[in-house]
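From the shared-data thread, chain only:
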Amino acid sequence: MVPLHVPVFVLAPAGELPLEPDGWAALLNLQCRCVDAAERVRLFTLADGWPGSLDDLLQPGAAMMRPFCDALVPGWAVDSLSLGVYELMGTPAGPGGEDPTAGMQVEAIRCLDQVPLRDVQNEACWFYPTEDGSYLSSRGPRAVRFRPGYLPDRPPTTDPLDYHRSHLRLLWSLLADDAEMTCVGLTYNNRRIDWPLEREDPQPSCDWAWFTVNSAAECPYREIERRRVSEAQPR
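Structure, as tokens:
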């Protein structure tokens, strides 16, 4: 049987990325150990001129709102991490689901590239709402466990990946009142790279903010109220 090829992406300090991996398990463990923090960001829409307060929204028993955005933002240390690009070769060992590596019998691994994240070309993207209005945000740290990244738009194929470093992009966005842009992900050849989440544990508290966006104002973002609450408190 002709082996299938699956490109994968591993984040770790440069000195820990192997040119000749001992095996797939070694790459899994490396990814899990070197990236263990993220931030859960949720966004909600509020009616303009809402007369209440942030405390009213966060009181036990208050009506639950459905977020229009619920994202896990990676806590990547861009200045210290490097990206290892590898190609797995093997055969399906069973149903793999969305992650093609989960059901693959890996027979060989080839290193395609190793590059410091700070050397990857940057690209800006929008994260927080750009439409005028009133919003509520929740931001809380998470302890996480990720598998290596993969390209969900590229199913396993018998053809090797025609890899070019110039196709990598490091995505950055402003998150509400951030003074500086935050790294929110990576793409390859304009395709997103997914990092399968194996575990996500909330930390003791998260920050809630009520803010408005007015594109005609000198400062489009205006914070109205902010509060830090325990993750155990009903919301």
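The CA atoms of residues 29 and 147 lie 8 Å apart.
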